[in-house]
TrEMBL record:
InterPro entries: SAM-dependent_MTases_sf (IPR029063), SAM_O-MeTrfase (IPR002935). This is catechol O-methyltransferase. It comes from the Eukaryota. Keywords: Catecholamine metabolism, Methyltransferase, S-adenosyl-L-methionine, Transferase. Its EC number is 2.1.1.6. GO terms for molecular function: catechol O-methyltransferase activity. Residues 1-13 have a biased composition (Polar residues). One of its GO terms (biological process) is catecholamine metabolic process. Belongs to the class I-like SAM-binding methyltransferase superfamily. Cation-dependent O-methyltransferase family. Residues 1-22 are annotated as: Disordered.
């Protein structure tokens, strides 16, 4: 029997239509398109209460996803969304592994939040979701999708999209810079140890991937059993992050013993297309010792004893047709 994951991977081999030229080096967000998207969603006849009241959650949320995607095809409307070819594979992973608590770094306009969170109610129908969390409930009974977004404008657009998709109570959006927020996230969410996230989706500022994972490791918010899903590891690429999650504990400890770098090192180039799966297994590269200014002074060594098993889910940019991928890293245990 062919699994949903196999079907999703098969579909990812076909490039989607091209609607935009590559956007790197241009203005492709933060110019008003996100506010325009929210107005478009709120005025779309197909998303009105009258049209969606009798739809299932899957059909209702899919209408919102389709409307977001169609908006992004327009001139100067490119959207930084995970898209269908990568997103469907992550959805299959969620249905397979059934995570209860998912953390997203980089909400943007809410496309990935809708895609991934809509499966939680089906796999955990009796759980308590963020809209009903309180001081008195049992943290172990909680499920939900926690999303961090730096921009208040993007967060407002995403919240509007979540409500239209029928997912308002499933998703909790927190605003502010990711790295300092992660240091206090356990307290903010009242997550007593050893409670941790079952899945983390990284889709924010690329230089922050590595430091943010290290903070999550130190705080015990990821650990054995957690699945990390990192978007855009091919386009634009993220050698530093890949070298961290693909390294052995011994390799990580050896690099950490050198101490942090005070200046940004030269950027490691991406490998050729046929070498992505085999690259960055020689240990953490120099960039993992450098903390970008956007981390706002937060430093972290992570938990070098954690062991990850990683693979790439190939896909495409949903608008430019460029090759891209998500790195899926399952934390399989810890070596002391």
């Amino acid at each position: 029997m062919v699994s949903a994951q196999d079907n999703a991977r098969s579909n990812s081999k076909v490039a989607p239509p091209k609607y935009h030229e590559p956007v790197q080096g241009t203005v492709f967000h933060g110019d008003g398109r996100e506010e325009a998207l929210l107005k478009h969603l709120q005025s779309a006849p197909a998303l009105s209460t009258a049209e969606t009241a009798n739809l299932s959650l899957q059909d209702r949320s899919q209408r919102v996803l389709d409307t977001i995607h169609e908006f992004g095809k327009g001139e100067n409307r490119y959207l930084m969304s995970v898209g269908d070819t990568k997103g469907r594979q992550v959805e299959s992973l969620i249905k397979e592994r059934k995570p209860k608590l998912i953390l997203e770094l980089g909400t943007y306009v809410g496309y990935s939040g809708i895609s991934f969170s809509r499966h939680l109610l089906a796999v955990h129908p009796d759980a308590t979701y963020p809209g009903d969390w309180s001081e008195s409930d049992s943290p172990e009974q909680r499920a939900g999708y926690i999303s961090l977004e730096k921009s208040e404008v993007y967060a407002t657009t995403a919240r509007g999209a979540f409500e239209l998709a029928g997912l308002g109570k499933v998703i909790k959006v927190l605003t502010g810079s990711s790295t300092p927020n992660l240091r206090t996230l356990r307290e903010k969410l009242n997550m007593p140890k050893p409670l941790k996230f079952d899945m983390v989706f990284l889709d924010h500022l690329k230089p922050l991937y590595t430091i943010d994972i290290k903070v999550l490791e130190e705080e015990g918010l990821v650990g054995p059993g957690t699945v990390l899903v990192a978007d855009n590891v091919v386009k634009p690429g993220n050698p530093a992050y890949l070298s961290w999650v693909r390294a052995t504990p011994a390799q990580k400890r050896e690099v950490l013993a050198k101490g942090p770098l005070k200046a940004q090192p030269p950027t490691t180039p991406n490998p050729s297309e046929d070498q992505w799966q085999d690259a960055f297994h020689e240990g953490p590269i120099e960039e993992t010792r450098w903390v970008p200014d956007e981390a706002e002074g937060i430093t972290a060594n992570g938990d070098p004893g954690l062991v990850y098993s990683s693979e790439m889910l190939d896909g495409w940019d949903p608008y430019t047709g460029e090759r891209d991928a998500c790195e899926v890293s399952v934390c399989t245990g810890r070596e002391e």
